[in-house]
Amino acid sequence: MSIAHRWLATDWGPPEHWRFAPFTVSAPRAGEVTIRVRAAGVNPADAKHVARARPGTELPVAIGYEVSGTVIAVGPDTRIVTGPVTVGDEVIAFRVRGGYATELTVPAEKVLRKPAPLSHAQAANLLLAGTTAAEMLHTVGARTGETVLLHGASGAVGVSVLQQAALRGIRVIGTARSARLETVRRVGGIAIEYGAGLTDRIAAYLASEGIARIDAALDAAGTDEAIATSSALVADPGRVVTIAAPRAASEQGFRAIAGSMPESARFRDEARAPLVALAESRRLTVPVGAELPLEQAPEAHRMLAAGSVEGKLALIP
Question: Between β-strands 288-293 and 312-316, what pairing exists: parallel, antiparallel or unpaired?
Fold first, then answer.
């Protein structure tokens, strides 16, 4: 066992309430590995899930769901998702508890080999956004040659959707604010600014390009405008999905997905290895906008909430 540090939510509330505290890292048992964290991914869910009391969750809560790092100990008879593992291997781990740490011991079923082309900061941000994006495309049954509308296209999930859709020959019309339209274009999307008249602007684009219809809509924004535009342009509510407006989905009859849902969790587990393979072959990447010291986790979340950084944020121990 060794002494490390991690971020804990010791009370429900914003990141300013978290505490950076020492803890004892347990030695790995069979089916576990210990990772020295080189980067922790920063996601809105990290703060959202401890902002208020949640059924079945007890304080304190260790923060952080995905990391990239180096294996420093391996339990007996242990393999990771992508195969054999030894001390010194570079790996990523996703849907762990307590990733905002200097070290942690985790189940090997959550660990995969790190894609070599990605830095640790990129790799630590690959899977939460990537598996969410994959599930969104899967949920609406997006197919080669179709046209999909994507709200929140310049965010982390949106950028992954754009990359994955392009690999499958799916056209994506992505909405974003004016300052982020170039991000959408750079990743292969058709960028349209959100705001008043959005439905009309999209309809005008479709007419100008001779595109018959929007086949499906993916909502990563959760705004009333995003929901209204999706409903107006997609005839089948079964081909509309949101990760940000579950109440509207329930009321209006379209799909909502979340990593906490068992079906979503199963899909995302299955999606991990294919996404790692795409990153390994340089067909999927992760734009990183800033790297901060691990000790500055609350500041990272202030930056994330303000939208002041283009690309993902990573915490570096």
Answer: parallel
pLDDT for 257: 98
Cis? peptide before 60, omega within 30° of 0: yes
Supply the pLDDT for residue 2: 80
- Centre a 10 Å sphere on the Cβ of residue 49 and count the other Cβ atoms it contains: 17
Q: Which residues of 275-303 are buried (b: 16+ CB within 10 A; e: fewer)?
A: bbebbbeeebbbebebbbebeebbebbeb
Q: Strand 19-25's sheet: what is its strand order?
A: 19-25, 2-9, 61-62
92, 276 contact by CB (below 8 A): yes
* Contacts with 244 (C-beta within 8 Å, 6 or more apart), sequence order: 152, 219, 220, 221, 222, 226
Q: Please report which confidence band the pLDDT of residue 249 belongs to, taking 50, 70 and 90 as the band edges.
A: very high
Q: Is the dihedral of CA 305, 308, 314, 317 positive or negative?
A: negative
| Phi-psi group of 302: left, alpha or beta (phi > 0 → left; psi -120 to 50 → alpha; rest → beta) | alpha
Say what the pTM is.
0.96
The answer to whether 69 touches 90, Cβ cutoff 8 Å, is yes
Q: Which two tokens stand for residue 172?
A: 């994506």
Give the type of residue at 174.
G
Cβ atoms 38, 102 nearer than 8 A: no
- Going by C-beta distance under 8 Å and a sequence separation of 6 or more, which residues neighbour residue 127? 66, 92, 94, 268, 272, 275, 276
Does pLDDT of 1 surpass 80?
Answer: no
Picking from 242, 227, 274, the residue whose alpha carbon sits closest to that of residue 82 is 274
Q: Which helix (H) or strand (E) holds 71?
A: strand 66-74
Using an 8 Å Cβ cutoff, are 18 and 297 in contact? yes
